Amino acid sequence: MRTEREDRERTTVLWRLNDRKALALYSAPALAFYTVFMIFPIAFSIYISLQSWTGGGEMEFVGLANYLDVLKDGDFWITFKNTIVLLVLSVLIQVPIAFLLAYLLFRSQRVMGVFRAIYFMPAAISSTVIGVLFCLLLNSDLGPLNFILKKANLSFLALNWLSNKDTVLYTTCAVMIWQFIGYHMVIILAGMQSIPVELLEAAAIDGASSGRILRSVVLPLCKDMIEICMLLAVVGSFKSFDVPYVMTWGGPGVSSSFLAIYMFKAAFLKSEIGLGTTIGIIILLLALIGTRVINRVFESGDEQA
């Protein structure tokens, strides 16, 4: 006869088996969805990147030739540099400004709702509209920005914002950074609102200044939200397309082109689908590397703490 202990062990094993079956059953739809819409497209894209294909007719297997062609192309390295510039500016300017705005709104509860909506509005507007708007504002001949600068006797600041190779990259980067500051601000503000009021009150009672509260209480407790914003900034930089394409088409030349624009032109303007897919795979790898670097930086910070 089985002992009571054996019965309990058998019951535990059955529970675990049932839990695994239930887990597999509940995970199956999500796994199927992820496989169809993520795994399969990525695998098929890798397959296409090894082919020479114009989008019609038969594919011709060329192996790594597309990758070698991309790495030998000078335009690729220019667009890569432009993308890295946007990434660095987004991480060093966009996210810190969003954090400061979120903290100001967090400390000013009375006007939080109004200004939160105002700051978030650019992110809610279509990127195409943003691009067209700044095309008009920054037009060197008819744009209001240069007109105001000239009227204010600051003609030396009136530049060809969208046609000068020295300024066009930073102009398009500034527009994209401005557009999504409010988006990151809302994310960080949500993290700040989850901070227990008791912690802030205790710090104030202990005589901590607003700056000390910001550094020692708010910043550490919002680290997860900041990490999310950093990840979004990195991924967004690698897939930036719409605003610079509407504003300049990536020109003059490739001075304001980013990797996504370079991919689009190769795939759809030159009808080199295999080459364009190759660039897409490179963008994916770079985004994964950037994501891993950000995660590692925050993980090392947690270990040191």
Name the features.
flat; MetI-like fold; 305 residues; mainly alpha; 76% helix; two-stranded antiparallel sheet; 2 strands
Give the helix/strand layout.
Elements: H1 4-49, E1 51-52, E2 60-61, H2 65-72, H3 74-107, H4 112-124, H5 127-137, H6 144-151, H7 168-193, H8 197-205, H9 210-221, H10 223-238, H11 242-248, H12 259-269, H13 273-304
Antiparallel strand pairs: 1-2
Major sheet strand order: 1-2
Rg computed from alpha carbons, rounded to a whole number of angstroms: 26 Å
End-to-end C-alpha gap = 56 Å
Helix content: over 70%
Write a structural description.
The protein is mostly helical. It contains 13 helices and 2 strands; from the N terminus they run H-E-E-H-H-H-H-H-H-H-H-H-H-H-H. It has a single domain (68-304), classed as Orthogonal Bundle (MetI-like fold). Strands 1-2 form a two-stranded antiparallel sheet. Strand 1 (51-52) and strand 2 (60-61) form a beta hairpin. Helix 3 (74-107) runs antiparallel to helix 10, helix 4 (112-124) packs across helix 7 and helix 7 (168-193) runs antiparallel to helix 11 (242-248). The model has no long low-confidence stretch (mean pLDDT 87).
